[in-house]
Fold these 3 entries.
Entry 1:
Amino acid sequence: MTTLSTKAHSEPAVYVYEAPVRLWHWINAAAITVLAITGYFIGSPLPSLSGEASDYYLMGYIRFAHFAAGYVLAFGLLGRAYWAIVGNSHAREIFLHNILKPSYWGGLWHELKWYLFLTKEPRKYSGHNPLAIFMMHWMYVWGTVFMIFTGFAMYGEGTGEGSWAHSLFTVWLIPLFGQSQDVHTWHHLVMWWIIIFVIIHVYVAIREDIMSRQSIVSSMISGWRTFKDEGKIDND
Amino acid sequence: MPETFYDVMRRQGITRRSFLKFCSLTAAAMGLSPIYAGKIAHAMENKPRIPVLWLHGLECTCCSESFIRSAHPLAKDVILSMISLDYDDTIMAAAGHEAEAIVDETIAKHKGKFILACEGNPGLEEENTGGMSCIIAGKPYTEQLRHAANNAMAIISWGSCASWGCVQAAAPNPTGATPIHKVPGIGNAPIIKVPGCPPIAEVMTAVITYMLTFERLPEMDRQGRPKMFYSQRIHDKCYRRPHFDAGQFVEKWDDEAARKGYCLYKMGCKGPTTYNACSTIRWNGGLSFPIQAGHPCIGCSEDGFWDKGSFYDRLTTINDFGIEANADEVGMGAAAVVGGAVAAHAAISALKRTQNKGDHES
Ligand code: HEM
Ligand code: SF4
Ligand code: SF4
């Protein structure tokens, strides 16, 4: 499309997302998709089936898929947190970032201006930009942690007293919310919080891919961040 | 020697046979092995009756109504005389000053040794506004409660009112109705909650029998409910559960599925979030329980069950947004707003991009 007006230039590249991070990203995306769909149908089940109960296990399978994907999500997050410790510095970004550093907030402000069309150029980052870090940390990481805690608390209600999920989560989390029904409601509400994150995340990733000076979507596949020009990398 | 339970039962004309039957049924209800039937019988024959003060605050008396319908053996006479109910303004014979004198007398005579059974709860708002919402013999109920509670060995919070607040504490709770464990200044006696609106009669008698037999409180969960009756949800032991797992639901009150007895989940059944023994012990002597009669569980033994929207909706109504909505309506609304914003943003981005193309990439 742009070939007509684009001069020949080189595209520098940095290796950002190591294999475990990329693998996690896509497995996790699949798990969340399964969780959101099955979760929705747990709250509002499909039309009733007639015939013998022993012939079907529809709700059972839906719930099973939900719990299986729940385990994937939970152990995925644990594995990802481990990689944040042993992996490269970019693997740490969504968990830990220095919010006391003025340049972080400066970068966040600049990025906001870029999204409000108040500045012509975004800065260049090899990892995530400060706004992305902000969203991923606060909306995604904490949203997921919340879902895992409330999810396993409800799971423990089914597996019952003495099960690990019951002892680890149900025992304190249900009284904290008051009763089980509110835990269901919050678990349900935060699903929408995560869906909203996904909408923004997918939009921004594609938009950045097109409009910014770095690759986004392909980086999560290949691991390499390529830059569309040779300007300096801002980072923070 | 003071009268024992057994003495009273015999005096009431209960045969030894039905007495033993009561002991084994109670052991079974508590989930104990059959040997405990003997222990219960032994305790009943030898231990003096525990004095019980049964006080009523803001309530509907459904707990008393349930209690006197306990199935075994001949509830209306025996259960009531089993414990020495020294004061219960609903069913005692005495009235007026004479009756009120019994409260002080019991407290003085059995200081630290009686059980305080609370039905209903106090309205604390009267302390703030000087209004009155529950006056017993000319004095606020709160006073009577505090006086008795501070001298009791243990407190039983009967029903959802005493345990959680129930209907009188439902928003906006004009009287400031407060469950017993949250009332300031009631001392340190252990509190056992027996929630339900009302609680099942067999559960009520079993809790008292347990306390008498083993001279301690039954094992309780974090929220102070006896584990033997409140550690599982209605849903965990519901006989309609196979229909739930199969995905067979009642969709309308008069549909074929309702006649066939399918799961009531879509009719708003709160069984999956309600801890109670209805699906195992059932009601009216094990005859039936609401779900068996074709009505969803309304979650009557759970904290705040009046404030969670319709009994007939699966998803909780959330009122905090000024409008009534459930989690899906709130979530979809928010997602639609964000989706709209994203679309608008994408359109502006595309526009800017065409405008800037020249100077950006030349
Ligand atoms: C992104 C993550 C997740 C999403 C979007 C999600 C979504 C949902 C939704 C919408 C419901 C229905 C709630 C209701 O209205 O009653 C639900 C129920 C439930 N979820 Fe999740 N969930 C997630 C993670 C988890 C995890 C990690 C677990 C842990 C095993 C879990 C376990 C459960 C359980 C046990 C229920 C209740 C099932 C029932 O009542 O039959 N969820 N989930
Ligand atoms: S009727 Fe209620 S308690 Fe029984 S299986 Fe269905 S949802 Fe669960
Ligand atoms: S079935 Fe549910 S609503 Fe009915 S009495 Fe039992 S706990 Fe209460």
Entry 2:
Amino acid sequence: MTEATASPGSTVLGRGLGRALPILTVLLAIIAIWYLAAIWMNATWVRDQAVRADTVLTTGDLIRQTLTLERPVLPAPHQVAAGLWEGIAGQKITSKRSLVWHGWVTLSATLAGFAIGTAAGVLLAVGIVHNRAMDQSVMPWAVASQTVPILAIAPMVIVVFASMGVTGLLPKAMIAAWLSFFPVLVGMVKGLRTPDAMQLDLMHSWNASRVQQFWRLRLPSSLPYLFASLKVAIAAALVGTIVGELPAGATSGLGARLLSGSYYGQTVQIWAALFAAAILAAVLVMLIGALERLTLRRMGLAR
Amino acid sequence: MTVIQARDVSLTFQTADGPVHALKDVSLTIERGDFVSFIGPSGCGKTTFLRAIAALETPTAGKLEVADMTPDQARRQRAYGYVFQAPGLYPWRTIAGNISLPLEIMGFARADRLQRIARVLDLVDLAGFGGKYPWQLSGGMQQRASIARALAFDADILLMDEPFGALDEIVRDRLNEALLDLWKKTGKTIGFVTHSIPEAVYLSTKIVVMSPRPGRITRVIDSPLPRDRPLEIRDTPEFIALAQQVRDGLREGHSYD
Ligand SMILES: Nc1ncnc2c1ncn2[C@@H]1O[C@H](COP(=O)(O)OP(=O)(O)OP(=O)(O)O)[C@@H](O)[C@H]1O
Ligand SMILES: [Mg+2]
């Protein structure tokens, strides 16, 4: 609705450009800074090499070499892009070197953990809103659960599950759920409590049961809050899964890819895996955002 | 037949700044089919009294009976239709869906629901708007929809707390006329809170004047006006005399403190 007020004669293309321009500017700035940082951080090594080989470097040589190292301290953007492209399109997707394959391993555990975490968060929130004892007892524990460093917990979870013979998706999903239930819990408690006194009074005057009040008033009113926290939760689930892939022994998933990259000094591989994770997170958050817009617009709850 | 009977009803809110006597020794009898207006300065306990009748507040002293039951028993039997100052329609339900809400909660069958929705939409002059969403309607139409919602399940008692407070004079006149019409057609007992003297006089068979600190009734005026009231009745000497009585009653309450 607001775009409609843009100056007359502005084309769809013009409007799209108007919105993309600030983003593009920032992106270009970041890339420029990145290149400078790459030159600066890799220069020491390049100079050392030159001294050892007894050659004299022109500035042009220096820059060219800092940006094309095999194992740079900081790979340049184009190297990361090439690594990313190589990992995604340059391999059979069943290959152990394919980022698509590793991404899928991570994604499946993320989605499973997200589902478990969301269900747990919603159920706990419903309990908290309807039960005084739960209201006073659950929240402190939920907060405490999030203050435990996940990096410390993750290996224990993996080991405990492994000792029971469970490996693969489930242990990672549990860690993802551990991180993602919390935002859902907080958002849902707030959301289920949004109906104002007047709407609750109306329900009361109709002698509505608590179940009717929940399905017809509290749950629909909470949806904007639920969607907002789902976006946080899916990103948290992805982080949890990747952390779950870091403990020794993991060979698949973006987390494992990060770790093996750092073992072998494959900085390009690390950064490519990092970007793959970031892109995955962005896509997931955008999907939930689209679902949110669709649902809230249909419910008349959009701004 | 007496529908609402209040005897020495007091209601004190315990607040951080000490007790607030919202109602003090309020006694009132309302007969079936009465249209009772409550008028008085802000904070005199009009809303509190209406809420106490609807079992949304509990009196701290005295006796309040609705159709020989406690207000809460009456609430459980769904004796009240309550209309607030704001329409409070659900944005995710159409107008028909909003009116259907209490009917669903009360377990009316689908066919019955549809029939009732059509009837009350007609009653508040919103026929044809059932499929619209609240945001597609004007404020006055939304308020009429909320009245339709309160009427749909045929509660005996309709309680309205400044239902037209937020609307302009012209719309208000129209809705007042419609409300009188509706009251004549349905024979309901209506409790109506307002700040407007002409509105109170035009609508009511009984005008209750209240005053604050502590909230109490200073005057109960029985209207001699006939039940059939065209808008022009507001220019008759009887109407003006009645309005003068209400004004005197309000002034009396003020000189008290
Ligand atoms: N829930 C509450 N807790 C504490 N005090 C309250 C509460 N509700 C009302 N009061 C107090 O009781 C008194 C009567 O309030 P009430 O809302 O009944 O007034 P009113 O006549 O409806 O006023 P208005 O015309 O402004 O709507 C006021 O002093 C108010 O501050
Ligand atoms: Mg009030």
Entry 3:
Amino acid sequence: MKLSQHPDPASLLSYSSGGLSTPFSILISAHISLCSKCTEKVRLYNEVGGVLVEDIAGITLSQEALSKFMDSIENENSDELTIGRVNTDVKQENEMIEIPFPLYKYIGSSLEKIKWKYLAPGIKKFTILIEGEKDAYLSLLHIAPGKKIPQHTHTGEEMTFVVSGSFEDKTGAYSIGDIADHDQEIEHQPTVSGKQPCVCIVATEGPMVFKSFFANVFQSFYRI
Amino acid sequence: MIQIDLTFVKKLQIKKNPKDFSLLFQLYGPKIKALMIRGGSDYAFAEDIMHDTMLTVWKKIDLYNPSKGSFSSWIYTIARNKRIDVLRKKSSQPYVDINEVEIMSNDPDSEKLMLDSQLAGNVKKIIRQLPEKQKIIIEMAFNEDLTQKEIAKRLEIPIGTVKSRMRLAYIKLKECFKEYQ
Ligand SMILES: [Zn+2]
């Protein structure tokens, strides 16, 4: 897949070092599952992690550490050998939109079962709950063609991943698989482009609060 | 000191011999423990995570693919995932193993991703030559498990500066690939 908008290399570094909160790392995972360029970058960063592990001065293990370990590998149950393997036969259920597999766990393999909540005319939202995550949030948005993604505030960083359709703003055009990863200073209001609705996932630090909720509603009414 | 080279790893992949594996444990165990302690764990907890990491290495050793990266980087990613899962007590596992991503990817570009120990050597060289300001940030991220925000706070610099130093380090690291290809 040819993708044109990629995460900031700094975000990929934090992804590799484990320094991203779960919502942001989910979006990066979804992107790298489609993007060989960013896979390459993450690999490079993982090599950095490997080099630093090689260089680190080890700390002596407790006396029983080795024997405890040898006991566990000898008692190891071979059933567990398959853990962590990707289930490659996930059905796509004859639908148009292909969900990247890192998102299955959070939104399922189809958008049809999403319980959308009405937000404004042409705009639906679904909040993805992430267990154990207090500071960062993930929201799925479904926006009709020609609509603007509602203006919102949040306390820090924001990252958007396009699941289907496309949008554009002054920073560029974004389509399936692309990531918008901007510094918080950038003021932008993306508009859905093309004839298809745009479904995107937005990760934010702090909950998404829609700034001009009523303004958006009225704008939408009057524009029609 | 024993030498863990590719031949040694391949031998283990063919036959999982606990005795050979104990050598691997003795080399990487103390390093992973040190990594966890730098990340804020206490000694006992660090050793638990190390134990868990090495157990996963034992279980999954046949999944290690040398063309996808060095053995150390593979062990590093396993340790990192354990740290995220256990140390931060997160129930979800968002980190996608690159080796698993490859299973799904049909992108012909992915052939370009071939790596080997030569790349690890180049990375090592570049890391050592990084300007101190960039190197500190890289070490804080990877060894101390800090987020960009935490690094900014620790160094008393804006988060934008942390990001731009990370980007500068990336520009240097990218040269590894150029040299390699
Ligand atoms: Zn990319």
